[in-house]
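Query structure, 282 tokens:
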């Protein structure tokens, strides 16, 4: 049995199962959201945006002229993707992500509103899966935001970068204090509104968990993961430095001792990973 958060309903037909937020049911169903593959086929002949590691489409909805939606198709990672890249055993994954994303939104964590999750039965217990969120407009991910920002004067850049990193650490702390452990906390899952940079969003709740409270070690490994992404992106030309990692940790913990313990752990994990990154560039 699929569990959906309050305010969502499940619609089943032959092969598709859709969990959709009630107020969006009509416009999304009429737009054909129960068969999302169609959008990916159409994409080839249109100029809709395609971002991210897997296919993420930005789509307009006739009945909601003010709103654009993002449709993400789940793709497999690892070596198995060379055999089959979009068929999953079971269909829990998008519904779990919808559940946690909706809980985060309901608890005022700044994130995209999750509108629907869809699974399409292919054969036996095998499915294709999709997630639909409301597009956060005028946003860039944190690495791209900093890259654009770095084109301005260097003093202004370092001030603004500091502001945005401090604000990100506060947003992550508040997320943790509300019991959310993000499974892929990295710079690309932080979006910044380019017009109002105080508006920072955490996205991509795939495999994340939500519980009463997080232990200090869970928080610590989550933010170390975030700082590791800074290190990795620095090597790809994103203007962040070791000082920025330190700033993030100090600002997160508001306790120099805890920050320096994590900084030390970070250095150890970075040393190990640097070699791996060198071997598998990207
Ligand atoms: N609701 C959204 N609004 C704006 N941009 C989004 C939204 N969802 C995804 N994106 C963009 O697509 C990228 C990939 O989406 P994400 O959900 O992080 O999937 P993945 O990391 O698996 O590719 C994000 O980094 C972001 O740039
Ligand atoms: Mg992501």
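Result returned for the query:
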């Amino acid at each position: 049995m699929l569990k959906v958060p309050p305010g969502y309903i499940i619609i089943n037909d032959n092969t598709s199962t859709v969990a959709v937020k009630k107020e969006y049911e009509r416009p999304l169903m009429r737009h054909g959201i129960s068969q999302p593959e169609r959008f990916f086929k159409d994409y080839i002949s249109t100029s809709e945006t395609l971002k991210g590691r897997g296919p993420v489409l930005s789509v307009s909805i006739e009945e909601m002229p003010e709103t654009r939606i993002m449709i993400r198709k789940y793709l497999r990672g690892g070596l198995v993707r060379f055999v089959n890249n979009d068929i999953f055993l079971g269909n829990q994954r998008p519904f779990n992500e919808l559940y946690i994303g909706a809980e985060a939104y309901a608890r005022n964590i700044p994130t995209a509103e999750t509108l629907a999750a869809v699974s399409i039965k292919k054969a036996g217990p095998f499915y294709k899966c999709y997630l639909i969120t409301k597009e956060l407009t005028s946003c860039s991910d944190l690495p791209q935001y900093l890259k654009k920002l770095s084109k301005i004067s260097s003093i202004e850049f370092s001030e603004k970068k500091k502001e945005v990193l401090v604000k990100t650490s506060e947003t992550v702390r508040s997320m943790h204090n509300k019991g959310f452990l993000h499974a892929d906390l990295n710079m690309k899952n932080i979006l910044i509104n380019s017009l109002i940079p105080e508006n920072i969003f955490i996205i991509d709740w795939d495999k994340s968990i939500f519980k009463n409270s997080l232990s200090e070690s869970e928080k610590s490994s989550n933010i170390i993961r975030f700082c590791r992404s800074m290190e990795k992106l620095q090597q790809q030309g994103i203007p962040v430095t070791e000082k920025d990692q330190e700033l993030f940790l100090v600002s997160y913990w508001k306790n120099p001792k805890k920050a320096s313990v994590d900084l030390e752990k970070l250095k150890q994990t970075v040393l190990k990973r640097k070699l791996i990154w060198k071997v598998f560039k990207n």
